[in-house]
Amino acid sequence: MSWARAAAIALPLAGLVACSGPASSSSSPAESRDIALPVDSQTIDARVPADSTMEMIFRRHKFSTETTGLLLQAVKAVFDPRSLRAHQSYRVTLTLDGLLREFTYQIDADRLLSVRRTSGGAGFSAEVVTLPKELRTEAIAVEIGKGQSLVGQLEAQGENVQLALELANIYGGEVDFNSDLQPGDHLECLFEREMRNGEFVGYGRVLAAVLQNDGRRLPAVLYPDSDGMPAYYDDDGRSLKRQFLKSPLPFDPRITSRFSYHRLHPVHGTVRAHLGVDLAAPYGTSVKAVASGVVEFVGMKGEAGRTVQIRHAGGYQTMYLHLSAFAPGLHPGSRVVQGDFVGRVGSSGTATGPHLDYRIIKNGTYVDPIAELRKMPKGEPIAAGRLAGFSTTRDDAMQQMASALANPAPRSPAAGSSR
Q1: Which of 36, 241, 254, 354 has an alpha carbon 20 to 30 Å from 118's alpha carbon atom?
Q2: Quick check: 343 and 326 in contact, CB under 8 A?
Q3: What are the phi and psi torsion angles at 344 (to 5°)?
Q4: Pairwise CA distance, residues 82 & 319, whole Å
Q5: Beta bridge partners of 44
């Protein structure tokens, strides 16, 4: 069925308009009617199919070659069509005779691509519209029980994994959320919830947090660094950023083999050195660089399988073994920033199952990653001239968090949560 045909079927009958003159003898007295306006357009809502291009979408809706060309020309002025993402929503609005009136595409949670026919009707104009949203400041408190994870506890309160991942990034140099959390640990967090039309659309900033971990109190306060970039500091104004992250993996891996010079190899059955730590994780889990540096090696390395090796400051190198895939475009000489995606967990080389063999080399010698990270120095302190401003921000944030926890507001569960 053509779009014009579908529009014609959808066109309702126009209501009759009552005359203002005297009513005939057959008319009911003082009868009033609503005026039904005819539909003058048809709207089609859809999602981008996998492996589609912008041109394929236009042709899918039977636009002529000329119209498709004009649309692409307008789009390219404000948006790269190659950035089209599968499963994102879009809308096509047609006139009754099948001409395109407007095309909109949801770029992400905050931006919309809008393409409209120009007033003269000969072409199209495009713009990227920033969608308005409301920021709500809220607080949440969770306690870790035996066998529980931070992700699970946050999801139990209606949040999704993105909040947990942001917290893991904040505390990444101090706590490995995969292995360092203990039963009885407690987290309080003050954060921004992004809402649009009453619906959750994402998280804003984490403004402050306090993690009680294994007897330690670990506060985190958002405050701009000397370059004006967002950064997190402890109560004393010392940066939480460390040279190395505590883990190259997100949540839920477990340590299956530690650093040892005398380990019984699970495949060969012989005793040999294991110069790293094995972290079990699902196949395809993303692996991130634990520190900024320069890539030295990307490729197959015998029994180690697909391997990435990165050189860092201070005489350090890190290695990521048994990967299933590398980050696109990663090659020797690439510069990576702490937290950059470098590959995915796999079982390439000699391995009994999917896991990451993570190694640290210091001045040419392999060292125990877990022990080495404990020796890493604390972060840099805020300059003395900025400490008063930080102290005010810290006190305000902690007071706001305490007040929000004492008087919780109704919360809208996050999209993707278990509630």
Answers
A1: 36
A2: yes
A3: -130, 145
A4: 33
A5: 92
* CA 243 to the chain's CA centroid: 23
- CA-angle at 359, arms to 246 and 164, nearest 5°: 25
Contacts of 386 (CB under 8 A, 6+ apart): 226
At 76 the three-state DSSP class reads: helix
- Cβ–Cβ under 8 Å, residues 362 and 372: yes
What is residue 148's DSSP assignment? -
Element (H, E) at 263: strand 260-264
Three-class SS of 348-373: CCCCCCCEEEEEEEECCEEECHHHHH
The residue written with tokens 């919360």 in the block is: 411
Residue in 276, 290, 408, 301 with CA at minimum distance from that of residue 355: 276
> Contact at 8 Å (CB) between 110 and 128?
no
pLDDT one-digit tens code per residue, 134-179: 999 999 999 998 888 888 899 999 999 899 989 988 998 888 887 7
H or E element in which residue 190 lies: strand 186-196
Please enumerate, as own/partner, the contacts of 303-306 that have beta carbons within 8 Å and a separation of 24 or more: 303/349, 303/350, 304/349, 304/357, 305/346, 305/347, 305/348, 305/349, 305/350, 305/351, 306/343, 306/346, 306/348, 306/349
Q: How is residue 279 written in tokens?
A: 């972290």
Alpha-carbon gap, residue 377 to 312, rounded angstroms: 16
Angstrom distance (rounded) from CA 247 to CA 120: 59
Helix (H) or strand (E) holding 169: helix 161-170
98 vs 234 pLDDT, higher one: 234
Tokens of 371: 């022990």
Residue 15 · residue 28 · CB < 8 Å: no
Beta strand spans in 144-239 (E)? 186-196, 199-213, 216-224, 230-233
Tell me, what's the pLDDT at 95? 87
Number of neighbouring beta carbons within 10 Å of residue 14: 11
Residue 206 near residue 365, CB atoms below 8 Å: no
Token digits of residue 264: 């019984």
Q: Which helix (H) or strand (E) holds 238?
A: none
pTM beyond 0.85: the answer is: no
